[in-house]
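Quick note —
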Amino acid sequence: MKKTTFYVAPIVFSFLWLFKKHNTFDPISLKGPYFLQFYLILLTGIYASILVSKFFNKDCANVEFYFLISILFLVIIKFIRGMYLGKPVGYLVMILIVEIVVLMFFKPYCIKNNKNDL
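Predicted structure written out below.
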């Protein structure tokens, strides 16, 4: 339960920022720069919580990976919506590439740590 609340805090903070700035809880409906602000707040918080957990030598939890995958799905949905509406999606493509690279490096590290525990 502690691990989950530790990773939910950046998500709650980013959605509170979203509601305070734009009076909505729907990040998909945001326009380009506003969505990027929301997304960067969300990513910064999640990556900071992962780095803090690594700094304190916490075990790699599957919760971290699931949160990263859910954030990736959010960008994929926004990317598909932007392509459908004919909007420029260059920044989203760069963010998708970076996040996929991070996930590729992150998941083998998790698997290696979980195998050592067995």
